[in-house]
From TrEMBL:
<protein>
    <submittedName>
        <fullName>ABC transporter ATP-binding protein</fullName>
    </submittedName>
</protein>
<dbReference type="InterPro" id="IPR015854">
    <property type="entry name" value="ABC_transpr_LolD-like"/>
</dbReference>
<feature type="domain" description="ABC transporter">
    <location>
        <begin position="3"/>
        <end position="216"/>
    </location>
</feature>
<dbReference type="GO" id="GO:0005524">
    <property type="term" value="F:ATP binding"/>
</dbReference>
<dbReference type="InterPro" id="IPR003439">
    <property type="entry name" value="ABC_transporter-like_ATP-bd"/>
</dbReference>
<dbReference type="InterPro" id="IPR003593">
    <property type="entry name" value="AAA+_ATPase"/>
</dbReference>
<keyword id="KW-0067">ATP-binding</keyword>
<dbReference type="GO" id="GO:0005886">
    <property type="term" value="C:plasma membrane"/>
</dbReference>
<dbReference type="GO" id="GO:0022857">
    <property type="term" value="F:transmembrane transporter activity"/>
</dbReference>
<dbReference type="InterPro" id="IPR027417">
    <property type="entry name" value="P-loop_NTPase"/>
</dbReference>
<keyword id="KW-0813">Transport</keyword>
<dbReference type="GO" id="GO:0016887">
    <property type="term" value="F:ATP hydrolysis activity"/>
</dbReference>
<dbReference type="Pfam" id="PF00005">
    <property type="entry name" value="ABC_tran"/>
</dbReference>
<dbReference type="InterPro" id="IPR017871">
    <property type="entry name" value="ABC_transporter-like_CS"/>
</dbReference>
<dbReference type="InterPro" id="IPR017911">
    <property type="entry name" value="MacB-like_ATP-bd"/>
</dbReference>
<keyword id="KW-0547">Nucleotide-binding</keyword>
Amino acid sequence: MLLEIDTVTKTYPGAARPVLRGVSLGLAAGETLALTGESGSGKSTLLHLASALDSFDSGEIRLEGTALSGLDDTGRARLRRERVALVFQQFNLIPSLSVAQNLAFHARLAGRLDRDWLAELTERLGLAELTARYPEQLSGGQQQRVAIGRALAARPALLLADEPTGNLDETASAAVMDLMLDLVRASGTALFLVTHSQAVAARADRHLHLAAGRVA
Ligand SMILES: Nc1ncnc2c1ncn2[C@@H]1O[C@H](COP(=O)(O)OP(=O)(O)OP(=O)(O)O)[C@@H](O)[C@H]1O
């Protein structure tokens, strides 16, 4: 199993009740999983825990067999740099860098810049004509395609995506989702996708729902 979430509970400091109450799920290498749930049900929290951005009360999360609870800050940072990539609703591109530089940024940091793969990603994401532009000169859909390309350029084992098309209209959202699913499947990357959209969730291999702190 690539990602194992085992009976995880999470309570935010000062909160009366836990937001996650014994969540368990597994994600195999290359698999795509969509997680839905009402606003405030804890979807983003679970994604943050899986990316080692936050700690949990009990249970365990393992990525490629490594227990996240046992990692120090350096270990967490390395895991995020080398094995996991994130795409959020806000595109989070670096405004002072061109499209080409944004696309290469994380792969460079991870020491895994493969120019052929980057060129293929750029082409398949329809960004080849836009590489010299800056993020402010792109539409929302184009910016999100750059964010997806940047995330996949280093060939992460796991892509965590939090409402990645939440800022886009329905047509752009469907196009970006199709591309993202094609590309994660082409690169063997597993996808853990949080979404409000049932239509988007239906495109994933598996669909789970988070309610009352548990998944079903
Ligand atoms: N840093 C934090 N400190 C305290 N409480 C938090 C924090 N982050 C989230 N929460 C609370 O935890 C609960 C779950 O939040 P989370 O963002 O995980 O939900 P979500 O399902 O992703 O919601 P949405 O669909 O609206 O994005 C909410 O009640 C939220 O207010």
